Structures are given as C-alpha cells and as structure tokens.
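help with this:

***
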Amino acid sequence: MEFSFSDIIATLALLSSIGVPIYIADRLQNKFLKNTNLKTYHVKLLDDIFSDYKNFIEDSLKGNYNRRDIANKFKMFSIRFDSIDKQNFERFNISEKLQPINRQLHMFTTGTNDYNSTPTSGKVKFSNSAKIQIETLYSLLLKTNGDIIFSLHK
C-alpha cells in the first residue's frame, strides 16, 4: 500500500486539527489553574496576616502589651506587609499597598502620650481618643486589604 503526497498532507492536517486544539486547551487550563492556585495561596496568606494583626490590635487596645512588645509586633508586621506588597505588585500588578497604612498606625501608636509615658516594661493603656484613632486606621487597613482581594479575583 502506497501513500501519495496528498494522503500524507491529509493525515497531517487531520492530526493537527485534533492535536492543536487539545494542546491549546491543555496549556490554557494549566495556566488558569496555576494562576488560580497562586491567587488562592495569596489570599490565604493575607488572611493569616490579618488574623494575627486583628489579635494584635485587640490585645493592644485591651492593654495587654508593653512598649517593647508593641514595637516588636509592628516591626514583624512591617516585614510581612512589605513582602506582601512586593508580591502583589510583581505577581498581580496590584499597586495598592498595606505597609504605608501599617506604618501610619505604627507611628500614631508609638507617638501617643499613652505609649511614651508608660515605662518600657509596663503595659500600655490607651486613652479612648487614641483607641478611636487606632481603630480608624485599622479599618482603613482592612478596607485596603479588601480592595486587594477584590483585585485578585478580577
């Protein structure tokens, strides 16, 4: 049995008409799943950070931390927020940033008279006006986090 040139061309055309769509679908599906998994991981990371941050703010407002504890917690959160801001921009081209708001909250908290008049090892008790300002800045941080998560799901 001999194959003519037209038979070979017809066979290649048939194989390519079947193979190319399968290849494209496989590539697109893998890219979509990889991107979805990365976004899911990123949202989980944000959830973990904000769970820790919520506990920190609540405990701070209750007066459960001394000055050193507060400074160390803000330092740790600064590192985490800086990292997540860089990842948001590099991976997802999201320009909203969490670290500047965290920094505002840090500067306000450590700049209050309540904080500065407390001995280093003493527990910091914030005034009602300071608590309101801390809660306001914290709510801005939560709003920005929600905007970032919304951007991730676009």
Notes: Helices lie at 5-61, 67-92, 99-111, 113-116, 128-152. The mean pLDDT is 89.
